[in-house]
From TrEMBL:
EC class of the enzyme, as a word: oxidoreductase
The protein, known as: Chromate reductase
Molecular function GO labels: FMN binding; NAD(P)H dehydrogenase (quinone) activity
Enzyme Commission code: 1.6.5.2
All residue ranges annotated as the NADPH-dependent FMN reductase-like domain in the record: 4-155
TM ranges: none
Keywords noted in UniProt: Oxidoreductase
Taxonomy, superkingdom: Bacteria
GO cellular component terms, semicolon-separated: cytosol
Length: 188
């Protein structure tokens, strides 16, 4: 039986570095894994009224339900994110908030989680990675252990319009991270 992994990309731009990294990571999983990017770009901002049965003026958006169901049906979730102003991008935080409700049916609860962060600076999105871990801590996730995946100087990983990572060391590092993530998922 195939394992299903939902990949959430923190940047909404089609040609973002985060999306390019994610596309490289998709190819690093074993064949018995169904790994796909789950888009978050069209998710409306979370509003608690959507989940309040006593609130009749605001109807739960269908995209919330489909997104929640996609995450719930996944065996694990893998994030690839840039760092925005030393935090995780708002689009990812919004997706997390949407999946945190309703309280009795939390989509991310207990799932294995992988996080790859990047930045154009040398710290590789350290703050985004840590803020994402903090936001996800509510769901009691299982994380890949050390070393964590912070990719610095990420703008230099791609030549021109290429979507292939040009640095063999970075490819090997990401492959190792994916391998350890797969080991974690396989224990489920």
């Amino acid at each position: 039986m195939k394992k299903k992994v939902s990949v959430i990309v923190g940047s909404l731009r089609n040609k973002s570095v985060a999306r390019k990294i994610a596309k490289n990571i998709l190819k690093m999983f074993p064949e018995n894994y169904d790994v796909n990017i789950v888009e978050i770009r069209d998710l409306p901002l979370y509003d608690c009224d959507y989940d309040d049965p006593n609130e009749t003026e605001k109807v739960l958006p269908a995209i919330y339900t489909s997104f929640r169901n996609e995450i719930k049906s996944s065996d694990a979730v893998f994030f690839v994110t840039a760092e925005n102003n030393r935090l995780v991008p708002a689009s990812i935080k919004n997706a997390i908030d949407i999946c945190s409700k309703p309280n009795n049916d939390v989509a991310f609860k207990g799932k294995p989680v992988g996080i790859v962060s990047h930045s154009i600076g040398k710290l590789g999105g350290f703050s985004a990675n840590k803020s994402l871990q903090l936001a996800l801590s509510y769901f009691n996730p299982q994380y890949v252990g050390q070393p964590e995946a912070f990719i610095g100087n990420s703008h230099s990983l791609f030549d021109g319009d290429s979507e292939e990572i040009n640095n063999e060391g970075t490819k090997a590092f990401l492959q190792d991270y994916v391998n350890r993530f797969v080991e974690l998922v396989n224990k489920q």
